[in-house]
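## tool: complex_structure
## caller: assistant
## args:
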Amino acid sequence: MSNMDTKIQELIDISRSPKAQLKKYKEQGKKVIGVLPYYAPEELVHAAGMVPMGIWGTNTKTITRAKEYCATFYCTIAQLALEMLLDGTMDDLDGIITPSICDTLRPMTQNFRVAMGEKMPVIFLAHPQNRFEEFGIKFTMDQYHDVKKQLEKIASKAITPEELEHSIKVYNACRAELRRFVKLANDHCDVITPVKRSGIIKAHWFMLKEEYTEMLGALNDGLEALPVCDWKGTKVVTSGIICDNPKLLEAFEKNNIAIAADDVAHESRWFKTDAPETNDPVRDLAIQYTNRDHDVLLYDPKSAENRRGEFVANLVKESGAQGLVLFMQQFCDPEEMEYPYLKKALDAADIPHIKLGIDQQMRDFGQVETSLQALADVLSMRV
Amino acid sequence: MAEEAKKKKGPSPGVLALRKVVDDVYEEARQAKKRGEPVGWSSSKFPCELAAAFDLHVVYPENQAAGIAANRNGEMLCTAAEDIGYDNDICGYARISLAYAAGYRVGRKFDPETGEFIIDPASGKPLKDENGNVVIDEETGKPKKDPKTQTPYEELVNINDIEALPDGEEKERRLNALKPIRQNLMPAPDFVLCCNNICNCMTKWYENIARMHNIPLIMIDIPYNNDVDVDDSKVAYVRAQFDAAIKQLEKISGRKFDQKKFDEACHNANRTAKAWLKVCDYLQYKPSPMSGFDLFNHMADVVTARAKVETAEAFELLAQDLEQNIKDGTSTLPFEEKKRVMFEGIPCWPKLPALFKPLKENGINVTAVVYAPAFGFVFDGLDEMAKAYYKAPNSVCIEQGVAWREGICRDNKVDGVLVHYNRSCKPWSGYMAEMQRRFTDDLGIPCAGFDGDQADPRNFNAAQYETRVQGLMEAMTAKD
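## result:
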């Protein structure tokens, strides 16, 4: 195995073993905070000297205990997150942060709080939608100050402004490295296959960002030294909330479809926006949230325009992809509500796309493979 | 055992007044549109007091969708939205509204030669003879239909296609063929007013309407609240949004904010809320002078016209009717009240008769609905108004939600709870399982859940519902 292959495999292994990561950090005497989607300021956890770990459901479990709280028509990411909090997988966590930006997460914040009881603190977070004016920034800051206070209690220490400024720098560096990786993965899609791309990105949710950035930086340097590949297959942009199922991504590889870029909440939507670096770090985090844009979850004051649809269509063109694969998470209202206008923008830009209905309990990908095969045929005519 | 109350025939003066209020809201909006004035579409819990301060005419897509669904056209419009690309998992109200916003309407089929409507032979009620007996068709052996009650076939049409036709007889015919219910004739929007205190689906729903019509959207954002109280940070955020909304409304209306009109609207809204609560409180009587299902119908008034003085007066009139019912020993409930339940959630509008049938068979009256406290908010001044709008059914924490419900369950003396797991409403149904456990623990009453939908009839199964109602009845009876 080459040095690069080893680095890649190490990150993929981490992405597949969050429980081992949790154990490792706990053995180091660190406290670990679970962070649910979307847009919780992990920097606050980091600045408190704790380890934030993303909780985005799982592809390997079945919903059983969570049924006591949820009706069937709820997003499996949220249900499986609760499942893992109930079945012992996450018992070593020292707390969780539960944002509430979508209609599933709103009541789920209550279910998490009730279900965890005395087991661990549950930190609630409500982001504003009117986030551009000073009153919206102020509200975000109020919320973040509240989260900060609760984290300080768990950490038994106060977070200093200097510590938070440092954490923001660490996170901005990580985001920059991830953005660099996404570009390099496109240039070297022969090496960075869809399964590997997903695993490498996903690992950051389970690592201290300093460690991750160092590993990813080394991998990026290695990729940069390689000649840009002469890809004979097709390329797509992926879009949706999450698409980290290796079995699903293998179907891309079987059909020689590479991922040129993504508009995925679990991937680029998280790291595309940095926080400013001033001497008012809580405000910097609020401004980072304000600046998030082209997002199905967030209000767009210029809603009469089709800004998000056009942004995604441009992403396809700029990244050199020929088409788009939309991973439609079942029961995800925000994605579903934006689909007709995404379709409109893609059609206007003459970009073929397919919509794949997925959920995290899916185990059979026969239909997905057939759809991808058909898409590959269409796209190959456009390469 | 509750005494059987006598059923009163025909709608009471209060009910008639309430119907007129909603009819007038739609009619006035149509007239305003004809005069070239801007008409807005508003979410049900947007602070209507703000638009009232500018004399702006506003109509309500949620009320419209409920009406379309109750008129059995929900599936037709839901399917139209799905054909545009909106997934069938999306809220049925949103799908109906988005299909309507895209121009879809319910049309009546007519013969292009004669212009006559084509009657659906399956429609209508059975014909009865002078003795009230059903008349049987000798040829088919089946009951004959009363021609007076028969209606034309219905079809999906698009108003944009009709309006694109040259002026003339064909265009006139097709416009006249639109189903003549107020919800099907709602004027197109010139601006939208969105408050997402009920759900975040509302945000994207209204953004989609703004995009379809290229019109301004005024957004009042109410983030979910994890606490029972509404603290200063939240009040400040919402107050500032009120100020921003006022500036936008000044631009849309071309008028300055009129403090006097605003105060009057607030005064009316408070008076309506108090009268609404008073009406709801009549369900505390045992037996009740009304069927709890009546409140579902009267909700249209608190949604579409709570800042109008006529609404307050109509509810006050209804309260008098109910007072009289108490004195007379009458009720709008058409059967003997044996058991009393809280109905949790929005009703399945397309299936109201199916919803009512097993309740009637078992003598169950709905004497508590969550809308009573949800729309009965009274406030004084802008800060309190911000707090009031922060407390919508789906924006409050579980403790507040349980307290509201258990309060009305106790006050209205319910024997059980019937929970609608509403496919259209994720924020509402999302913590119902835990709420059910608390109702049983805290109140010692049985609960039963059923699957349904507020607007899409495909998500309701009458057999499952009947079984669950039967089960609830048995559990309630076992406690006697």
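## assistant note: Chain A has a mean pLDDT of 97. Chain A touches chain B through 52 residues (CB under 8 Å). Handing back to user.
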